[in-house]
Automatic annotation (TrEMBL):
This is 3-dehydroquinate dehydratase. The active site is at 25 (proton acceptor), 103 (proton donor). It comes from Novosphingobium album (ex Hu et al. 2023). Catalyzes a trans-dehydration via an enolate intermediate. It holds the Pfam family DHquinase_II. Homododecamer.
């Protein structure tokens, strides 16, 4: 079976996972999550391309790249850009590759400014609130698309 290429794009401050507000985001690092995704991806026939940046434009560029590379799906945890970035909304709309919005926490149970998601307005679907498990659930959904 040919491997399905899945981009996993992570936005600002997610490089601090493990140290950053562990009571909200858990104790696993982004590398830990990447390793879990690679392992589950092998079972699901998915090749994982894991990226992180603190810069909005990198996420825009990588969404375009995912399309150009023929990716099967993108998992996107845009961090705080979720709630601010019309550029990411437009980038998702500019590609046809399905984008699944992912969050470790459930933004709807948190501050009001987290209740709006620009990303979610163009995403295929959203998985939030399950900690690191959110990424694995999103990968399983992606593999089925
Ligand atoms: C987050 C939720 C966002 O509101 C926040 O800005 C983050 C992380 C999450 O994974 O729970 O940086 O995307």
């Amino acid at each position: 079976m040919a491997s399905k290429l899945v981009y996993v794009l992570n936005g600002p401050n997610l490089n601090r996972l493990g140290k950053r507000e562990p009571e909200i985001y858990g104790s696993q690092t982004l590398d830990d999550i990447g390793a879990m995704l690679v392992e589950r991806g092998e079972a699901l026939g998915c090749e994982i391309e894991m990226r992180q940046s603190n810069h909005e434009g990198h996420l825009v560029d990588w969404l375009h790249e995912a399309q150009d590379e023929g990716a099967h799906a993108v998992l996107l945890n845009a961090g705080a850009y979720t709630h601010t970035s019309v550029a990411l909304l437009d980038a998702i709309r500019s590609v046809s590759v399905p984008v699944i919005e992912v969050h470790l926490s459930n933004p709807h149970t948190r501050e009001a400014f987290r209740h709006t998601s620009w990303v979610g307005q163009a995403a295929k679907g959203t998985i939030a609130g399950f900690g690191a498990q959110s990424y694995l659930l999103a990968l399983e959904a992606a593999a089925e698309l």
